[in-house]
Please model this.
Amino acid sequence: MELFMMNCELLAVCSGLGYLEGDVYFKEEDCIDSVKCLIKYLHNEDSTRDIRTQLGAAHILQNDLLPILTQYPDDLDLFSCVLRLVINLTQPALLCFDGKVPKDTVMHYHFLNVLSYNQNYKEAFGKDEQVWNVLKKKICSILQVKWEDRQPEDSLLVERCLVLIRNLLHTPATSEDFRKTNQEMSSQDSLLWKIHASDFDDLILYMVGCNDEQQWMLHLIEIICLILKEQNAVQLAEVDGSTSKAREREDNKLLAMRKTEDTRRKMAHAKLTSRHSRFGGTFVARGTKALSDDNDVIMHRSLQHCQAISFDEGKSQVKKARNRRAIMEEVIERHSSRGVRKILNSFCKGFLERGYNLCMRVTKDRLQREIAQDHDETFYFWMMSFFLKFNRTSDFKVQYVSETLNLNTLHFIETNLFNYYELMLNDKHDAQAWSRRLHLALRCYHEFLMSVQLMSHSEDLHMQQNAKVLLNNIFYVVEHREILVVILRKFNERKQCRAFLRDAVLTTHLFLKMFENFCRDGTVVVEKKVKARKPRRKTATKKKENEGTAKVWSREEREAKWEEISDGVTQHLQILDRATLEVQSVFDPSSDLTESEQQQITLLMIQNFLLENKVDEATKYYLNARKEHTPQFDRCETLYGNQPN
Model:
């Protein structure tokens, strides 16, 4: 976009900023008012982001804003306003379009324009070292003041500087960066080189390890993740090795690649024949039936091509809908130059020594208390998996990562694993985003197990004991054993990539090997799931018990029973002293039953006592009933034998 395509009012405001003569920038008198007008225009731009596009096409940031920041740092009001404008211009393109890549063709075109201008801003900051020196001096002057003596404007200025760095590091690489070799500097490498040259990385490490600067911890952890986003932890850890070994390893890789290329060229040359294709010959494939079952397939091609028979040649592949296609694996890793890797290696080691434990503790505390923004735990999981792998590969020291090798961290990982898994199944619109977060949590779980395995194989007895305690808790809890099985069974290629499946298989294999080694002693205690049983109704059980114990006596059995116990009844009646007999009321005058009905019930009770061989209770019950109703129970004497009154 040329200058004559800009809005007239916007062009007039940009002209009021100032002008550049050589290396000196001369600001206008109403420069600060022009900056405020630009901020207002950006605030009121439409959905196509036309103001942002016009300012990017006019190179306002490269030609005006950066010189103002570097040459007028003492003008606090102007510096603060320009910093606000730069932050607004460099914010990620996704935030400008509601956090999603537009699917509409026109809106996607505007999205790519904003993204390209952000990449130009990143390259401009990667070429200017002076602006990083100015930002570092501003932050250092504020950090020298105690936090209780700082003004609100000071804290706001530090936060804006950190947000500016976050925006620049968040900008993705250009298409030219992917075409560059390992020895060439990409836009990300150039930016990191300028940050290191101005000692801004040391300032970041100081803020991470300082207890008084914990309010910036979430910004700092995001910046550190973005600094290392294109790096591989294993490659960074191996930079410290000798130069000869590294070169020898690279030479071996090149030789292996050359050998594979030669073999591929020889195979391609063997397939070529000097004979014309029409005289290639005709062959019959034995055992492969043609359309008619009686004949074999006839191949009109050369012998080399007849070895691989496929009936899919010439057929159009079945197209799948977009929502049914497998997710393509997104691997954004770049093998930077050796100088950049050395810088990042020293940065990672300094972070582990100074502030890893403090940073992870503060971040997890804020995540659990829901003080942080949504989905900030993704940076926590990424940093945990990266630095556990880096520490394990370079020089394993448990004291550097002790904050993330405990049961609380394991429970936090497991809770988020289940949460992300359920949200991935339920939230269909953002299923891929939840799948990526689930992948990060799974990598953390894998690195946690790898670190614990190294602890168990250590020569230090105290470290072995700690590893044994961790393993005992891991293998005891049911959820820790079943989460991997659930993830493997519910794998869906439309929501999860192949890298996720590979990491899930590796984690499961590692878990099983550790469980096998742990069970060699023969004493393993695990928690079992207790199935909830429905309580049975008490009334039904009582009825069943009564039905099971009740017995129906026939007349012959009753007579035989009476002959058996009649002598015992006679002895009890003779021995029992009626004077000392305990008085027990048998009949209830307040009952609704009549007197004759109560007498019948009393007779049945006495009969049951006798059938159950409870002679003593039967005689007592009989004598008490006879005292209250003597005439009605006279006939009972003939039943139990002739007894005196």
Summary: The first strand starts at residue 18 and ends at 21.
